[in-house]
Amino acid sequence: MIRPTRPEDVPSILRLVRDLAEYERAAHEVEATEEDLRRSLFGPEPKVFAHVAERGGEVAGFALWFLSYSTWLGRHGIYLEDLYVDPEARGHGLGRALLAELARIADERGYGRVEWSVLDWNAPAIGFYKSLGARPQDEWTVYRLTGDAIPELARGREA
């Protein structure tokens, strides 16, 4: 069963975030707390959204996303920040169902894209995404400002 997340799902989502970070060899980078997620998902003006996949009445996967915008298309899109399904729940169509729900939302609302990033070494995920018809955007390189670089740039100094 795929459904929008509810406040009581936050502990499960944080557990899945931590599991995903562990899988991606970046557990030490997770700073998010339950309160951070609760505020982001259910605050007065949420800017991020999530859907969960239930299996046997338990949250077994999630998709966390937000709106993007394409100036070329002149339309919004969905940027999928995280998609993760518990290893023991894989193979039952939960990941596909989560992505299908995001595609349904995009189609229903007239959005032009559903996009996400995947680590180049994550062959199982890459194979899965390609099986759904997704194609890599190899000509683009992701850049990121983080940590001290943000306030330094904001104050007009070089990082």
TrEMBL record:
CDD domains: NAT_SF. Keywords: Acyltransferase, Coiled coil, Transferase. The keyword Magnesium does not apply. Residues 1-157 form the N-acetyltransferase domain. Pfam families: Acetyltransf_1. Residues 13-40 form a coiled coil. One of its GO terms (molecular function) is acyltransferase activity. Its EC number is 2.3.-.-. It is an enzyme of class 2 (transferase). PANTHER family: DIAMINE N-ACETYLTRANSFERASE, GH14572P-RELATED. This is GNAT family N-acetyltransferase.
